[in-house]
# Entry
Amino acid sequence: MAQPGTDALPLRVAIIGAGPTGYYAADHLFKRQGLVVAIDMFDRLPTPYGLVRAGVAPDHQKIKSVTTTFDKIAANPNFRFYGCVDFGKDVTLADLRDHYHQILYATGAQTDRRMGIPGEDLRGSHPATEFVAWYNGHPDYRDYQYDLQHEQAAVVGIGNVAIDVARILCRSIDELRTTDIADYALDALRHSRIKEVYLLGRRGPAQAAFTNPEIKEVGEMADADIIVRPEEVQLDDLSRAAVEKSQDRATLKKVEILQGYALRKPTGKSRRLISRYLVSPVELIGNDAGQVMAMRLVKNILIAAPTGALQAKATDQFEELPVGLVFRSVGYRGVPLPGVPFHEKWGVILNEKGRVLDPDSHQPVIGEYTAGWIKRGPSGVIGTNKPDAAETVTCMVEDLARGAILHPSHPEPSAADALIRQRQPNCFSWEDWMRLDKLEVAMGQAVERPRVKFTRVADMLAALNR
Amino acid sequence: MNIASILARKGPKVFTIRPEQSIRAAIASLAEHDIGALVVVDEAGKPIGIISERDIVREAAGNERVFSKAVSEIMTSHVIVGTPQDDLVSVGSTMTEKRIRHLPVVDKGRLIGIVTLGDVVKAQRDQYRGEVDTLQIQIMEEQT
Ligand SMILES: Cc1cc2nc3c(=O)[nH]c(=O)nc-3n(C[C@H](O)[C@H](O)[C@H](O)COP(=O)(O)OP(=O)(O)OC[C@H]3O[C@@H](n4cnc5c(N)ncnc54)[C@H](O)[C@@H]3O)c2cc1C
Ligand SMILES: NC(=O)c1ccc[n+]([C@@H]2O[C@H](COP(=O)([O-])OP(=O)(O)OC[C@H]3O[C@@H](n4cnc5c(N)ncnc54)[C@H](OP(=O)(O)O)[C@@H]3O)[C@@H](O)[C@H]2O)c1
# Structure
């Protein structure tokens, strides 16, 4: 019998998830010397690129050009894309085991972490994950509603996602009009009455999770002033000692930027982004109709853990912030896939270096792997998924060499294709996506935007006359 | 990035030993699992020390009968422990400075994992590589 991984019998790999990780993994596999692989990539959406399309902010078009790298990978003749195919629904693990030697889960983090405070589910309190998907035109979220008639909004968390959300809320329509933000979101934001957006950090400026280009950018918005309280960005003794010891340039710069903001006087722009530190929401307070009216905050101090990490500790000082809209941006979280072992605490697929583990024996499950956010949790920029995928691919290649792979009864590519088309007659091929992409770009050109997105699956099908 | 992001891809295994067990048992366990250190736990599973290959080698250099000694006689007590939310920057600098190679991680008093200096360095290296890669894409786009 032919050896899998050769011309006679290419190694058949199924990649679930067409985000950056899926492409980087495909690239690492294609580039392995002496290995012949044929990859099928699945995504539950008709469109590829994961969070690059549905997460990265519309006013950050430059970074979206990373998709040209992904397109080159997809051009490999041994690569096929199956959009609109949901793992667990349209195809099952048993189906894949029957058609592939190896299966790689790269499904990212599909939901949000909870804060666990009273009032979290009041009307007007939303996870940032959904708002981000909404303004980016994700078909599952396009019909969500956000009441932008309140004048005060709060964003909890100070990671880059929180900055994205706050920035989109503060941008003028002229700034957004030239992006690929979803049409309905542009319309809703056009009528927004938001005047003040609070950005709430539970620790201090030296511990802020956002990166410097992002915090600099919010100091240069056309119609929003940035406001920082000087006393909140003075370093406490512990932070000062830590920064002085590490001499970490990025942290020094971050603190300098924020202290610079604290010296600015408001210039009377229509909106104000108020960046606060050392405060934690302890409760959302609602009115009789169950709508958020205010947020109760506790003031924190920093304490040092034995490892030197500085953590927030609540004091007994509270304040109330009147807000009608709250976005909780305290992190994403992975969701389990049917039949795939999951680690509840971390919200990831149970794995060791990308090998999926059996929950009882803790031994690797033959033929199943994971990479990206669903492997290590929701952190890191697009490029971080490249070394992460490389680690997993190394395990895949080692296991192939040891013969520890699946033995599908139908490894021929035509068999998988027939099964998928039978299960999901509406599935999208790479060519379908390329046509859709051209249409979106053409619609965008007509109105001087990078693209105008289709946001309903039915519209995408109709656009391709299907 | 914090300790949780390292533990997430390390699997749920943490290898432990009891203080009254012998060094022979410790060596067998280190060899079997191909690791550099074991967390020493009391009957409640609480970490009370750590025993590393170094500790054993150092003892063996002056003591032929090292095998039959009890783990408690050689282990390092006063272990520094981490929690899942500790930032890697602080953890990395503390481990380097205090020459800690293995850091037990506890959550609500329970041992849930162990992080090595190598793990921290790798995670930080991957993060920087990713950032550089991503910046390059943006710069290239600016030039076109
Ligand atoms: C709001 C936001 C903005 C960001 N902005 C930036 C930025 O500006 N620059 C930067 O470098 N990084 C940014 N990042 C980080 C970057 O997006 C991530 O590092 C990266 O997308 C993670 O890649 P992934 O492939 O693991 O997951 P994802 O990108 O989430 O891809 C996962 C894919 O799997 C698919 N999928 C899920 N479940 C199934 C299923 N059951 N069956 C089939 N398919 C499935 C999903 O539809 C999705 O396409 C941002 C992240 C967020 C959340
Ligand atoms: N432009 C870009 O490059 C870009 C844009 C978007 C996203 N990304 C990347 O995508 C990843 C995910 O971003 P993210 O913003 O979702 O996550 P993140 O960077 O981990 O930030 C999460 C934020 O939430 C805070 N938080 C967590 N729990 C909290 C609680 N209970 N109460 C109050 N605050 C809480 C955290 O504070 P603590 O630090 O105190 O825990 C932190 O400020 C990051 O790696 C990010 O860099 C990059």
Observations:
- Chain B has a mean pLDDT of 93.
- The first strand of chain B starts at residue 16 and ends at 17.
- Strands of chain B lie at 16-17, 37-41, 47-52, 102-107, 110-116.
